[in-house]
Amino acid sequence: MNPTIELLKSHRSVRKFTEQKIPHELLLELVRAGQAAATSSHVQAYSVIHVTDPANREAIAELAGGQGYVASASDFLVFCADMKRPTEASERTGANVVRGMTEQMLVASVDTALMAQNVAVAAESEGLGICYIGGIRNNPQAISDLLHLPEHVFPVFGMCLGYPAQTPDLKPRLPVEAILKTDRYDADDKQVAAFDDTMQQYYRQRSGGNKESDWSRNLTPLFDTKLRPHMRDFLIERGFEMK
């Protein structure tokens, strides 16, 4: 297997970091690597906020659900979907810009995710650990206020970066046969059932027998309630009207 594929397959979320700081020039290189990701029509509909103020880091850690590693990691980035820059650039050419389209929100969200994943892979190639923080969407308005995000910009997720002080076990993924379809979609519940067995064994081993769960049961909190119901109104307030 070539080193790039091995690196990608070795990804794990790191939540404990040493006190060693990431050199600033290396951080810049990681962001430049992020910018090299594919982007729809060269729109580059993202901005990244490097949060350095300790008080802001502590506040975000709490707003994201009490995730202390947001404050303890060497660096913390907030990846934002940004339709302000491209629409205003177009407007300056004299275009009659239409804002608030659902497609604009999708483009910005996808661009942001692709860019962030490039940053993650680049960081791991340098021996760093990373952890995505989707919890910033728990309180997106408070995060937006803290970071002075303007209209047509919203925070998608954060990312902790630092030198790892732990090596977590690799978490199994669904078998490729469950997600790779040929010519048409087909459901195969046997693959999911087999994966539930795999995950049950994983949780038992990782917890010393103290956690009895599997993949399907772990999904329950995501789907048996209205998860982050505030997001639709928040996005509309941000100018993403989903027209």
TrEMBL record:
Listed InterPro entries: Flavin_OxRdtase_Frp (IPR016446), Nitroreductase (IPR029479), Nitroreductase-like (IPR000415)
Enzyme nomenclature, EC number: 1.-.-.-
GO molecular function terms noted in the UniProt entry: oxidoreductase activity
Listed transmembrane segments: none
Keywords from the UniProt entry: Flavoprotein, FMN, NADP, Oxidoreductase
A Pfam family assignment: Nitroreductase
Enzyme class: oxidoreductase
Keyword Flavoprotein assigned: yes
Residues annotated as domain Nitroreductase: 9-163
Recorded family membership: Belongs to the flavin oxidoreductase frp family.
NCBIfam families for the chain: PRK10765.1
PANTHER family: OXYGEN-INSENSITIVE NADPH NITROREDUCTASE (PTHR43425)
UniProt-recorded name of the protein: Nitroreductase
Native source organism of the sequence: Halomonas organivorans
